[in-house]
Amino acid sequence: MKKTIQDFDLNNKKVIIRVDFNVPLKGKKILNDNRIKQSLETINYAIEHNAKVILLSHLGRIKTEADKKNKSLAPVSKRLSKLLNKKVIFSKDTRGEKLENKINKMKNKDVLLIENTRFEDLNDKAESKNNEELGKYWASLGDIFINDAFATSHRSHASNVGIAINLESGIGFLIEKELTKFDLVLNNPKKPTTLMLGGAKVGDKIGLIENLIDKVDYVLIGGGMAYTFIKASGLSIGKSLLEEEKIDFCKKILEDYPDKIILPIDSVLAKDLKSKVTKEVFINEIEEDDMALDIGYKTYKLFKEHLEISKTVIWNGTLGMTEIDKYAVGSIKVCEALKNIEAYKLVGGGDTAGFVINNNYEDIFDHISTGGGASLELLSGSKLPGIESIDEK
Ligand code: ADP
Ligand code: MG
Predict the structure, then answer these.
(1) Would the CB of 198 count as within 6 Å of ligand 1?
(2) Mean pLDDT of 181-208
(3) Do 268 and 295 form a contact (C-beta atoms < 8 A)?
(4) What digits encode the pLDDT tens for the residues 76-101?
(5) Alpha carbons 181 and 368: distance in angstroms, whole number
(6) How far is the C-alpha of 94 from the C-alpha of 145, rounded, in Å?
(7) How remote is the CA of residue 316 from the centroid of ligand 2, in Å?
(8) CB 266, CB 297: distance < 8 Å
(9) Which residues are catalytic?
(10) Protein residue with least CA distance to atom 24, ligand 1
(11) What is the pLDDT of residues 205-256, one digit of tens each?
């Protein structure tokens, strides 16, 4: 078990918290402050326990000096101040005397936010390559390190691993919650368990399939990735997504788990993405110039039958090209069905979580991971370096 923020006496301590403030920005406008809100519990806990709170986060990617202009955390500092109802001290410097002076002047319960950690990437990718000196330097600014940035915990960066190896460390409430929810579905799921997969590429999901296939009872496969499986089963898929180099993998899975893998039996097709005309056909009726962009109604019914008998549902990958409304129908219908299904339901993956939230299906699910790539790594059974590097209890 990893130490958590609750395992430390924070009174009078300088507590460095790695948060995830990687919010979508348009200019200086924050389009969605969900990520800031999700870190409030940990920040407030540290304030309530009399800590001096030092916050670190990245925002986007910094490759050139010009990138800094629109990737500053200054707007986040303002929003955080509003949400905490409290002054937030902002340091434009990611290191140096001015930053150190600001920290030295902090009183208990003060909150200081340091500018985007990736500004350090202009210095030979010091942050993203976990430069040893940088991790040590940031660690020297505090007494205790708390990692609460789940979405970057699959990366080994100076602002997570680099600090953790130099300080006493624990996880925050957000990471603790993510780990608890994943532990439930991965290690102790109620049976039957169904894994519902979609998305564009088989290649993105191989680790996940390999890790989960023996643990789950059914694997429902929709989305673009289904068509490499369908091709592997010997049918024509027209212009639908195909990963030639993954056909052998798909064949092997279909051979080894013939009863577990449930593939689409019909599809919504168009001649191209812009086409207004669509048709719905059986899976063996796809013509050469057709492109499959969503599951059909019969597939939805088939998926629903399996979901209805499941006690645990793990979902990653949208079942159609959901960026276009008419190809979101399959995924919407499945969400509607899930409303009435009593199972433990978890969603992982950035696009899938975005789809669920944008369509107001949040309430149906027991957990929607904020993790994106990190959630896929967990489902794939990989260890996350940002969490591995944290002290054990
Ligand atoms: P996550 O980010 O949650 O892991 P993915 O990125 O794997 O999810 O899946 C979402 C993406 O899959 C979307 O961009 C969607 O357009 C794409 N997708 C789903 N079905 C199809 C399809 N039939 N053809 C092409 N792309 C598809
Ligand atoms: Mg994605």
Answers:
(1) yes
(2) 95
(3) yes
(4) 999 999 999 999 999 999 999 999 99
(5) 9
(6) 17
(7) 9
(8) yes
(9) 35, 201, 350, 373
(10) 224
(11) 999 999 999 999 999 999 999 999 999 999 999 999 999 999 999 999 999 9
Q: Atom 8 of ligand 1 has which residue's CA nearest to it?
A: 317
Residue 370 has pLDDT above 90, yes or no: no
Residue at token pair 């219908």: 333
Structure tokens given for 90 = 């902002």
Give the whole-angstrom CA distance, residue 393 versus residue 385.
17
pLDDT tens, position by position, 10-43: 999 999 999 999 999 998 999 999 899 999 999 9
Give the mean pLDDT of the chain. Answer: 97
The mean per-residue pLDDT over the stretch 179-197 comes to: 95
**Residues in the chain, overall count:** 393
pTM for the whole structure: 0.91
> Among 82, 83, 101, which residue's Cα sits nearest to residue 92?
101
The helix-helix angle for 297-308 and 329-339 (nearest 10°) equals 30
Question: What Cα–Cα distance (Å) separates residue 247 from each residue in 14, 221, 232, 296?
Answer: 54, 15, 5, 23
What secondary structure does DSSP assign to 131-196, as a single string? -HHHHHHHHHT-SEEEE--GGGTTS--IIIIIHHTTSEEEE-HHHHHHHHHHHHHHHSPPSSEEEE
* 39, 20 contact by CB (below 8 A): yes
Q: Tell me: pLDDT of 47 over 90.
A: yes
Q: At 81, which helix (H) or strand (E)?
A: helix 74-84
Q: How far apart are CA 59 and CA 38, in angstroms?
A: 16
Task: From 318, 325, 326, give the residue whose CB has the most ligand 1 atoms within 8 Å, as the site to mutate.
Answer: 318
- Sign of dihedral through CA atoms 112, 173, 35, 378? positive
Task: Using pLDDT thresholds of 50, 70 and 90, give the confidence band for residue 177.
Answer: very high
